[in-house]
Amino acid sequence: MAIPADKKVAVVTGASSGIGEASARALASDGWHVVVAARRMDRLEKLAEDIGGTAVQLDVTDQKSVDALAEVLPRVDLLVNNAGGAKGLEPLAETKIEDWQWMFDTNVLGTVRVTQALLSKLEAAPENSGLIINMGSVAGWNVYEGGAAYNNAKHGVRVISRALRIENHNVRVTELDPGRVATEEFSLNRFRGDAGKAAAVYDGEVNLTAEDIAEAVRWVASLPAHFNIDVMTLKPRTQS
Question: Which Pfam families does this entry report, sorted A to Z (predicted)?
Answer without folding.
Answer: adh_short
